[in-house]
Amino acid sequence: MVAQADDALFRPVRTGNPFEETVERLLQAIKLGVVVPGDRLPAERDLAARLNVSRVTLREAIHALTEAGYVESRRGRYGGTFVNEQLPKPRRAPARKLARELGNGLEDALVLRSALETGAAEAAASRSLSSAEREHLERCLAETSAASLTDYRRLDSRLHLAIAEVTGSPSLTSAMADVRMRLNELLDAIPLLERNIEHSNEQHQAIVSAILADDPIAARQAMQEHLSGTAALLRAFLS
């Protein structure tokens, strides 16, 4: 059985700012492709219990996301809260401005991402994956390879989370989701170029192939090469 990313993202929130963190968790799940356009969020009672927040807090968070254009509520027998088919476009703030705001946090996030994701690729390749886990990886890879420019960033994030999922560690999946959200605003400020996407897809194929071949060394090396390219592209646009 695949350890689902929503188990990691919909974990209990901290007690300090339950509303803000509930909004953050729901946005993570949407922006990182764990729940996709057209999907229904878990039932209110179940989701509130998983996040360990009151149903009032959850409703306020859902209302905020409704106002922002991410979800809609439907009534009736098959009602609930659904992710909108058309999501708001990412904020296209100047990349250099975002980098200045992030400050030293950029290098911190890149180092953390490298440590987490190379380790995840190695750990995934070191496990004996079930047929469901293998199919999950292959499906996420295929969806990313076929993604439009509009959907590419979200499905790329989903593939990287899938690699964490098949390690069997919800904590690793959660940590990867957090660092990805730190970097995504910067990545969204950089234009998606067809040649870069082709190269990225080739690297994704190499990573997944190494994992499915049970080759942890090759999986780690392929992931490191992939992340190094992304980091170099970020630094080039931010310099």
Automatic annotation (TrEMBL):
Q: Which Gene3D superfamilies match?
A: GntR ligand-binding domain-like (1.20.120.530), Winged helix-like DNA-binding domain superfamily/Winged helix DNA-binding domain (1.10.10.10)
GO molecular function per UniProt? DNA binding; DNA-binding transcription factor activity
Record keywords, A-Z: DNA-binding, Transcription, Transcription regulation
Instruction: Tell me the InterPro entries matching this sequence.
Output: GntR_C, TF_FadR/GntR_C, Tscrpt_reg_HTH_GntR, WH-like_DNA-bd_sf, WH_DNA-bd_sf
Q: Name one Pfam family in it.
A: FCD
The residue ranges of the HTH gntR-type domain are 16-86
The answer to whether the entry has keyword DNA-binding is yes
Q: CDD domains from the xrefs? A: WHTH_GntR
By what name is this protein known?
Answer: DNA-binding FadR family transcriptional regulator
Write down the species. Kribbella antiqua
